[in-house]
Amino acid sequence: MTGLARAGRSLARSPATSAATLALAITLGAVAHNAPHRAEVAAAGESSPSIPRQDFLNVPYDGSYTFVRVRFNGFRGGGFARGFGRGGGPGWAHDYPYADNNFIRILDEVTVLGPNTLGTNIIDADNPDLLRYPIAYVSEPGEWAPTQAEVDNVAEYLRKGGFMILDDFRGNGEWRNVEAVFGAILPGHRFRLLELEEPVFNSFFEIETLDLPPPTFGQYDPIFLGLHEGDDPDGRLMVIANFNNDIGDYWEYSDLGYYPIDLSNEAYKFGVNYVIYAMNR
């Protein structure tokens, strides 16, 4: 790296790092669909038929920041329909484990947060252990068909200070489903369009533009939306939605050269900002 982060960087609020000074992706070295609108499935109380759920070798809780991916009940079930690896698995597992591992390495490189670099965790949406971790990443929430246990657990998680990142979803059908899901989780809260001045976009890096083109499905216009505590736009941001985009895809393939390095760098900057914002709130 170019001396960016480890020299004197702290988690306390400080002037954001210039967005023009990085080449994040190259430090790694070697390392669609529209879901039907199913508001009625929110809080249905029953899981969809699926392959038996697999166990994961999660790293033990030790108080350090650990990347957490949420496994949820989906329209297609909660198992691994096509196994691990790039391009496989149900929506909640898309880009796993490469995106998670690549991102945590970048976070460790450019901050002094001291994240857990021994592994990342997958935690079910209805598991109370989720409340141990301040930040949770959700892939393809347009497929989410939550049980009542998931609704109750995620609601408690968010109200007790949790921060949730929604990524890799697009189109009106998937958006309607996400609105229905979070309408059940946080009644009385509504998603608002986020502007560049939002604190989350200036918590570490100075994000210069929100016009990050999606790596795939370029026919969609990407936007960022959020849910704020108490439905107050000046309140704590509890949920951020990378709608019509897929920053996890940039993370996953940043070591393979599929996408331009500058776009992968920008995707990492958004992710780092999300973590630093959430850890300071």
Notes on the structure:
This protein has 281 residues and is of the alpha/beta class. It has one domain (39-279): Domain of unknown function DUF4159 (Rossmann fold). The chain contains 5 helices and 7 strands; from the N terminus they run E-H-E-E-H-E-H-E-E-E-H-H. It has helices at residues 98-110, 148-159, 171-185, 247-253, 261-279; strands spanning 68-71, 121-124, 135-139, 163-169, 192-193, 223-228, 237-243. Strands 3-4-7-6-5 form a 5-stranded mixed β-sheet, sandwiched between helices. A two-stranded parallel sheet has the order 1-2. Helix 1 (98-110) links the parallel strand 1 (68-71) and strand 2 (121-124). It is globular. 44% of the residues are buried. Mean pLDDT is 83; it is low at 1-23, 25-50 and 78-85.
